[in-house]
């Protein structure tokens, strides 16, 4: 194969990788409860119903030290506010939860009484390829976070380019 043809292939490949990346970069960071954050005053049901959670997205719980985040293992625990059997507990005030797979996840505040006051969240993660009604996040919340996504994105891009150019050297 001619050298120029190889370069052309590489270019096409890179564009392909770039398009894949764009899909990745569209991963969202959901600030739980929006501006109000993780608090008793927030209506989490309506907050969650207005958005689509996709694999690759992250949840960010922002809260004061009087709260915590407990991930519950079942719908039953969620209904009963059984935070004692939590599968994971966080209390750093800025807890990031990555949505790694399709399915339903349950969260509640670990502080006594708060879950019963409505401080609980149930979300269903869908596959990244399905597009939901609210694929756009308010720019105020996403701007601070997209940097992280971009860093990992450019790393993936770099790695893919490396793999591709190696492949081209073998083929050409
Ligand atoms: Cu609380």
From TrEMBL:
Keyword Glycoprotein: yes
Leader peptide range in chain numbering: 1-27
CDD domains: Phytocyanin
Record-level GO cellular component terms: plasma membrane
InterPro entries to which the protein is assigned, alphabetical: Cupredoxin (IPR008972), Phytocyanin-like (IPR039391), Phytocyanin_dom (IPR003245)
Domain Phytocyanin residue range list: 28-127
GO MF annotation terms: electron transfer activity; metal ion binding
Keywords from the UniProt entry: Glycoprotein, Metal-binding, Signal
Region (Disordered), start-end ranges: 127-148
Metal-binding as UniProt keyword: yes
PROSITE patterns the UniProt entry points to: PHYTOCYANIN
Protein's name according to its UniProt entry: Phytocyanin domain-containing protein
Organism field: Ambrosia artemisiifolia
